[in-house]
Design goal:
2 copies of one chain form a homodimer. By secondary structure, the first copy, chain A, is an alpha/beta fold. Among the domains of chain A are: 99 residues, Aspartate Aminotransferase, domain 1, CATH 3.90.1150; 244 residues, Type I PLP-dependent aspartate aminotransferase-like (Major domain) (Aspartate Aminotransferase, domain 2). The first copy, chain A, has 16 helices and 12 strands. The termini of chain A are far apart. Chains A and B meet through helix 1, helix 2, helix 3, helix 4 and helix 5 of A and helix 1, helix 2, helix 3, helix 4 and helix 5 of B. Chains A, B: Its EC number is 4.1.1.15. Chains A, B: It holds the Pfam family Pyridoxal_deC. Chains A, B: GO terms for molecular function: glutamate decarboxylase activity; pyridoxal phosphate binding.
């Protein structure tokens, strides 16, 4: 390619490196060769990092405490420019201390792994450096968002893929959009007149749901006390009978139920709320039915697992984060909305400097005014390009594989000495929640003492994992349950051997506790 | 570098191209060579695109109407995977129809240009593929956000750079955060109890301010009618006397004034509200003083222009978007907050799966719970790396240069035949607002007819610009003013010759109208 040719020519001409001043980079007149050399150097650093990240011999993290890390490098911002050599050194230092989120033994979050086509797409997105507000400034990306949202709605089961939607900066914001739409649908005057024109509202979600529902209610002026927690069963699923009881209770107290958020794949247990039963209740009481499938929504791509989302087609809105179980690079979160036009009516402000009505093209492609954001990052291209590269069946295979791994883990530890499962039965998602009881705790008779000591086990093992840098997995308490490990698998790079390794590592690091 | 060596070796071994199946890419066992080759091919496409984008012989856009663009390529998503060759073809097609936002003659938005160090940093960010919620998963990026926010607060003029802040997905969300904080500061019970526990609130902003203030008020349950528009003078600056009068009026009507948003650099005129006078009024009536410097905040980096922001140091919160006037790749928007701890108190929900309190490091670096988002994209690294590469003086030079260009444009057209300025006097930012009157309209006596025909001039010239692809500039009506051009300059690649070109092009394309 011509760019590569320039780059090589430049490299030959500049054997002393590229430590020249910034003004020699593009847009300078003769900046192209130096620019290509500089960018190629950065790419080489990145390619080396990628290969390293997938290598099990590499540490997941080279951990240092914040104050220590602050001192290990000069991170300060100065008046004077640095050389490009210094910039390359900063890039290397940044990656040296970064978490290798692509590492096959990094299990710490719901978003792990690094897809190569997704990465390439994100590099292209950065290079295109535009904004989603109008067709005028993002013609291709606006079309790809249109095509992809339609496809996702088809998969949800909405007729002909009809409906609306948007890619938003994360699941919390997608859920907030849903709540905003539900309120506006019931009380459109709230947009102009605010909550003082509206009766006291009540939203419902299970006690295992994501904290963003409460966060959204606080932000929207609804208040966290108006988010009523519905009981979950032992495996973390919402109990529909409790939902109906709480709706009736709220109505009796003068609240107006306006929003139910069912979770498809809870954060900790990976539980799927019974969507059909919940949708029946929503229909009966005419309440907006939202499905928070940020984590579990992707299972609808799998013919083997999609039954867990049965009823999602009845939802008024669905949150679905391809950056989690589909391993699309961060961030990529979709909100899908059944009713067309509602988002536009809810959020539009008709800014005349952006959404001119006398433009020469079809204005329905100027999607910016349905967003809460003004500028909106292009999150669509990485999902779209990955979808092209894998096909729907590729995503399915990837999801099925992760679920197979988690079933393997579950089968491996459910009867193993020293392990206790946090809830019974095969997990529905890749979440496997368990306690590891070191030998010194395993046989304690005093139940309170045992609990107290067990509570401290996971944090210590986790701290040791990070210091050794061998693996990372999350832990937490929940309700009256002391700290347990929450294993999740979303990284297509993980294998059965990595699961074995995790268990060995927990035992190695925890044996003396 | 080793990555390059692999890449070259791979290229030699695979003369037939890289059209193999996806499963051969990393994380496959032997995926590294093919992966490096594939990524290098994409990089070559991107490098060629970059060089092309800065070339004035290239079109800014290869424009097609939405339906036409949909048909020019197969954009559909399928069940089956495509080959990597097809993926490369899709990358090329996407860039072919994209807007070249780096092009020196692209003046369409407040965010233009493409900084090479910023781009490299964004590529690194994508490769690191992590999330800002905790130090645990983003140690370096969390520290860099800390360092950079402190530096920005120092520049604002807050003692020792003390205070708080966050990078958010765009200026609209930053402004919404400010409003949320102002409400919580005055009525902390709103978080739990919602707006029903709070008297009717009133927010104030100038009629020239950004629409996100109203959008935020609608979302937060305050309502757009509670956003009271303050008159602006002829040049677009808020009139402080009108602010005081409207505050008193609102109080008499039983509203509680809680938030004033002054604008430093309005979207259309680039006007700077008189911050000192406004802050005095805010102090007198004990109202939160927010400065929306999304567009104009960066002028504080310039010793020549910072006086326009005098008084910003008195603000309770400041929105400042480095992705606009500092040409950092999209998105990069900061909200700076004077009071420490307030964001945390306002937004925290203590999710125990993420913000475990028994972690082994200093928890003040787990900044995620102050955000409305749960996952948060890493927007900091590109700003930080550019700052290192340019130094503060480099940003200053870049900003000064853009302002010099806009002064050149203003001087060129203010007395030129066929031009009328939308407001008198030298613009304070790079916004130059003007009408071009083609000869056929220039001498019309009938004022109404003249206005009516003038209104149609800018849209037609703009459409022709896009069809020829030679340049792009925004237009709009405002109040009773018919469509005018709003020129803005934020691209460091632009030169005096590009300004000359724009004027010639407007005249060439508009002469017959």
């Amino acid at each position: 390619s011509p760019a590569r040719a320039w780059c090589q020519a430049a490299a030959q001409k500049l054997p002393g490196g590229i430590g020249s001043k910034l003004c020699d980079l593009l847009p300078a007149l003769d900046g192209d060769m130096k620019t290509m050399t500089f960018l190629q150097e950065v790419v080489d650093i990145l390619l080396a990092y990628i290969t390293e990240s997938f290598d099990r011999e590499t540490k997941v993290i080279d951990f240092h405490y914040p104050n220590e890390l602050l001192q290990r490098n000069n991170w300060e911002l100065q008046d004077e420019p640095e050389t490009l050599d210094d910039i390359l050194i900063s890039c290397r230092a940044t990656l040296k201390y970064a978490i290798k989120t692509a590492h096959p033994r990094y299990f710490n979050q719901l978003s792990t792994g690094l897809d190569m086509v997704g990465l390439a797409a994100d590099w292209l997105t950065s290079t295109a450096n535009t904004n989603m507000f109008t067709y005028e400034v993002a013609p291709v990306f606006v079309l790809l968002e249109y095509v992809t949202l339609k496809k996702m709605r088809e998969i949800i089961g909405w007729e002909d893929g009809r409906g609306d939607g948007i890619f938003s900066p994360g699941g919390a914001i997608s859920n907030m959009y849903a709540m905003l739409l539900a309120r506006f649908k019931m009380f459109p005057e709230v947009k102009e007149k605010g909550m003082s024109s509206v009766p006291r509202l009540a939203a419902f979600t299970s006690e295992h749901s994501h904290f963003s529902i409460k966060k959204g209610a606080a932000a929207l002026g609804i208040g966290t006390e108006s988010v009523i927690c519905i009981k979950a069963d032992e495996s973390g699923k919402m109990i529909p009978a409790d939902l109906e009881r709480k709706i009736l209770e709220a109505k009796q107290k003068g609240f107006v139920p306006f929003f139910v958020s069912a979770t498809a794949g809870t954060t900790v247990y990976g539980a799927f709320d019974p969507l059909i039963a919940i949708s029946d209740i929503c229909k009966k009481y005419q309440v907006w039915f939202h499905v928070d499938g940020a984590w579990g929504g992707s299972l609808i791509m799998s013919r083997m697992h999609k039954w867990k989302l049965d009823g999602v087609e009845r939802a008024n809105s669905v949150t679905w984060n391809p950056h989690k179980m589909m391993a699309v690079p961060l961030q990529c979160s979709a909100l899908l909305v059944r009713e067309e036009g509602l988002m536009q009516n809810c959020n539009q402000m008709h800014a005349c400097y952006l959404f001119q009505q006398d433009k020469h093209y079809d204005l329905s492609y100027d999607t910016g005014d349905k967003a809460l954001q003004c500028g909106r990052h292009v999150d669509i291209f990485k999902l779209w390009l990955m979808w092209r590269a894998k096909g729907t069946i590729g995503f399915e295979a990837q999801i099925d594989k992760c679920l197979e791994l988690s079933e393997y883990l579950y089968n491996k530890i459910k009867d193993r000495e020293g392990y206790e499962m946090v809830f019974n039965g095969k997990p529905q998602h890749t979440n496997v929640c368990f306690w590891y009881l070191p030998p010194g705790i395993r046989y304690l008779e005093d139940k309170e003492e045992k609990k107290k000591r067990l509570h401290k086990v996971a944090p210590v093992i986790k701290a040791r994992m990070m210091e050794y840098g061998t693996t990372m997995v999350s832990y937490q308490p929940q309700g009256d349950k002391v700290n347990f490990f929450r294993m999740v698998i979303s990284n297509p790079a993980a294998t059965f051997e990595d699961i074995d390794f995790l268990i060995e590592e927990i035992e190695r690091l925890g044996q003396d506790l």
